[in-house]
Structure formats: C-alpha cells, structure tokens
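From the pipeline queue, job 12 of 40. The input is one protein chain; the requested action is below.

Action: predict structure.
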Amino acid sequence: MNLWQSFKNNDDVYLEEPWLKIVKHMLFPPVLMYTLFPPMLIRDTLNFGIELARLNDMVYKSRQVKSFFNPSPIAAKLRAMLDPEKVHRSDIRLRIAVVSLETGKLRYITESGYFSGNSDQPVDLIDAALASSAIPSIFPPVKLHTENYVDAGTREMLPVQAAVDLGATQVYAIACSKPGGEPAPSFDGSNMMDITSRAIRDIMFDELQQKEANPPRGWGIDMKLIQPALDVHGILTVDPGLISISMAYGYMRAFDIVEGGSDPKKVENLKRISDEIIRLRLKIWDIEHPTRGKQKPGEKASWPDPGYPRDVRKLKRDLKALVNERQQLGGATATPPDVETWWIDKELLP
C-alpha cells in the first residue's frame, strides 16, 4: 500500500491548530450534546471565559498563529516510510521547489539533500517536501537553515524550467487542478469570499499556469501538459474513495497524453471517455456513501434512497461499457490494472 492509499480521513494528514479548535467550539457549540447531557452546557458555560482568554492570548501572541492546520500526521508517516538515502542512491534527478519568505526567491532542493548550486549545508528531504507543500495560511512555513519556506506555487505553478535546466528535451508537466478560466454563473448575489475565490483561485492562478505552460517564445523542447478537466476533490479533502478515483483519473489522463499518439481526434476521444468515467464513478461514490452509514465530507448523514441498488447496478453497467469503449480505443493499458474492481466492488469509504 502506498502513502496515499493509507489515508482514511483528514486526521491522517493534518490536524487543526489549537486556536482554530477554540474558535470552532465557541462559534458552533455541540447543541445536540447539550440537549442529551445538560451538565455539558454548564461546564462549557463556565469554561467559556477560560477559552476566550486563551483565544485572546493566542491572538495577542500572533506569532504563534501561523496557519489553520499543521501537517504533523503526514510528517510522521513520511519519516516512517521514506528513506532519504534511497532517494539519494536512486540516480533519479530530483528538484523539490520551495520559496523563501525572507528573500522571495524560488529555490530547489536536489535528490542529494542540498539546495541546488549550494552544497555547503544539507537539507532534510522530508522537511523539503513539507516546505514544498506548505500552502500559506493553510500550513505553517518550514524552516530550512536560516529561512522560512513555503509552497513554490506562490511563485511557480509548473516547474518546467527546472527540467529544462537539467537538460531535458521532453517534459511532461502535470497540473493538479482543472483549468480555472471556465465561465461561471452570475456573481450578482455573491459575497466577498466568493468574489475573492473566483478572482484569485480560478482566474489569476489559471492565468499564471497557462503562461508557464505556454510562454511567449515557447520552451524550445517537446513539452506536454497533463491536466484534469474536473476536480475530484478539494485540496483539504482526505477520503479513500476520492483518492482512489483521483489516482485512476491521473493514470488515464497521463495515458491520454503520453500514449494517445499523434492523432488529435483519438486523444480527444480518450480524454472524453476518461472524464466520463470519472464523473460516473463520482456519481456512484456519491450514492454509495449514505448507504453504508458514512457521511460525505462536510454533509449531514442521510438515509439511503430506496432505489439505490437498482440505480447503482445500472450505473456500474454504464461504467463497464465506458471502460470497454476506452480499451477498444487505447488497448488494455488504457485503464489501471484494478479496473474490474470499479464495477465489482463498492467505492472505498473511510
């Protein structure tokens, strides 16, 4: 089992910072528990002043509040599963991109555990990986030597240049999210958060990514972009079913681009089918969640639809038909090896 397949829920990857727990408890008290156990209400009422004081202390000492979450669970998993020495001996040339908050510069850590162009002081590869994924405000910056580093996406969305600098003549660049420039419904009644999210996450980031994928003078090499057409889950969602679906999507979309050949029509058909397969699997996952007593992330529990078994059987027949269509077009390797489990088994749940 790989690292991603070992995750069952958010707590396997990150934890809420203490201040966030306090705020959530103050804003969203457990009303149902108060009804069932009235002494809890008395206890929490008495503790309210204490929690307010703790929150005030944290706000006052704002240097302690660096993020909403901390990645200690995945850091522990990485230290247990990853051997930096094996990475060093692998002969695979690696560049982990990070950005310094102090200098604002983009830097790379190599497979040997040093900053590129500087072999004076070693850098822990696991710390480098955590820094490279430290989305500002979501996760705290990581101290590497004397500077604090965050996710390199703040300066570079697609690190194609690093591969070019290493002498690559063919590059496959992977974009982890769908294009963000697609039309959206009217924003007449939208609030500040909706507008900010649309402007920054969808439009601005997409523009940066598109410019990096297609610079004005080109890359001067064969560069192919592997990018999903839809997002399977959000950046903070950890769900084994969605992870499984996302991994299958990544496999198929990579096949579409790498093995699709020079026929544009064939490539577009492969991409269309992979998108349809993922939409269908997401629909099946959505139906199967409540039937097994599990809540979908962020939703209340609901009773299963009486027509569930019949509906799912039909959807899985449709899924098998799409897989057959894809394999006829691209061959057996156009789908992952576990493809038959998609319609034989239920989608994974926590």
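Job complete. The chain is about 45% helix and 10% strand.
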